[in-house]
Sequence to fold (569 residues):
Amino acid sequence: MTTSPVDATTTPAWGELLRHHQEFRGDLRGWFAADPGRAERFSHTTGDLLVDLSKNLATDETFDLLVRLAHEVDLPERIEAMFTGEHINVTEDRAVLHTALRRAPGTQPSLVVDGQDVDADVARELDKVGAFAEQVRSGEWSGVTGKPVRTVVNIGIGGSDLGPVMVYEALKPYGREDLEVRFVSNIDPTDLAQKTADLDPETTLFIVASKTFGTLETLTNARLARAWLWERLHAAGAIEDDHDAKQAAVRAHFVAVSTALDKVEAFGIDPANAFGFWDWVGGRYSVDSAIGTSLAVAFGPEVFRELLAGFHTVDEHFRTTPLERNVPALMGLLNVWYTNFLGAHTHAVLPYAQQLHRFPAYLQQLTMESNGKSVRWDGSPVTTQTGEVFWGEPGTNGQHAFYQLIHQGTRTVPADFIAFATPAYPLVDAVGDGKAVAPGADVHELFLANFFAQTKALAFGKTADEVRAEGTAEELVSARTFSGNRPTTSIMAPALTPSVLGQLVALYEHITFVQGVVWGIDSFDQWGVELGKKLALEVAPAVSGDDAALAEQDSSTRRLVEFYRTHRA
Ligand code: F6P
Fold:
């Protein structure tokens, strides 16, 4: 697909949205009071997710116009182009097929793209990951001294880290006490040093996860881990200090996930223990590929397949549901409304689930690496603002930190609230606090009461008259007044199961895609990270003491490097 993208800002729907915006007055109190059917009409389901859009700053007309816009930028055709493997990643001339990683087994006709039987290859690799996971879990896979694996260390960064660590934290209740996974990503040596400090090398397995197997951080950490393994095994008398013994140790304690299997072998990892995927899976879309090997080990292949099935449920919804009820489409379009018409710069994601504490970080890569672009897929400049800053923390922690700004600040911060009806750890407060909390209170209910209360407070606020009616001194009334009309989307599911987690991730993947389509950008490349990587390698000699390299730096960088060289202990 090399034709130019439709310029959304020139479409009739965009013009209508501009007009609509000029006469738009957010009035969530009034809208809810006048329209008892609002919550029902603006709530939708996808899979197990209930998605309530009714507390957004949008009317029926807003939604109608946004859906018209989606048609005028050819969203349905672009969705189909993605699912069928057209090269919609134009700047890298690649198909975008993360959805193929989770197609239902046995789907007919099978998906063949660019001559590759995608379904067959995906199934084969998934089986290989599953078999390996079972070997580790059963103890059949053993380290060089014959001991079973007790700790898996995933070494990767970006998409080769954020997805696995997010899912690992979210699904911990599905794990086993005798099998832990740790994640090393940062080239700051502290990361590897701390994560390995208390490990037994004989029971440790490293998974080097890197799509390219060329990422500086990951390869550096992998080399450090290899040296750590050799040194510790030798110190424990488990291996000799010779080439063959070291080679055997690497083969027993290292596996890899990559699209570059030749480089894996050059590192010393047995190619039989390398799990592959393909260039049509972007790093930030890869947690459902072999990049999730650490998850299959931690939770078992069945749980991993349930996760994939959850993704697929939302894929099917996205592909087949009319835009008027299509949840990812509507959420993506609302984000366009906020970004391009209501002037929002950021978007908060606030899971009321401690298990999702890495979800906002995961979404930051997904959304911002995808849509942080200033040119469209044909290289022409964008014609409007693009990707928002995504951020967030689990509730209720955020309530005691940054919610103040969302409630009473001058900026509009659309926020997604996510909660689950059933807790992973049902706990009861047997004693209570003698005031607000009764003896025997279900703590999850207290938690959820906060979730419900926050979106209410944000939507409906508190008027000055209501504040006065509480007997507040007049000089404090304005400080204690809440304007309301702060937009939120509420997402609820029965429980945080593997399938539900897959559904949530797929939801945000497709929201991101929808926004990219409206803006005409390639949401699947990431050229913006290249310059910093190149410059780091250029500056490195100056840092290490090369005065000629130092002299070539700009004055600020030179001074900073000099400070480092002077103060390095
Ligand atoms: O630096 C950006 C990036 O390319 C991400 O897109 C990717 O997820 C990450 O680096 C890691 O890349 P790799 O898996 O090839 O090591």
Observations:
- The mean pLDDT is 97.
- The pocket of 6-O-phosphono-beta-D-fructofuranose is lined by residues 157-160, 210-212, 215, 218, 283-284, 369, 526, 529 (CB under 6 Å).
- Residues 530-567 form one domain.
- Residues 498-519 form the longest helix (22 residues).
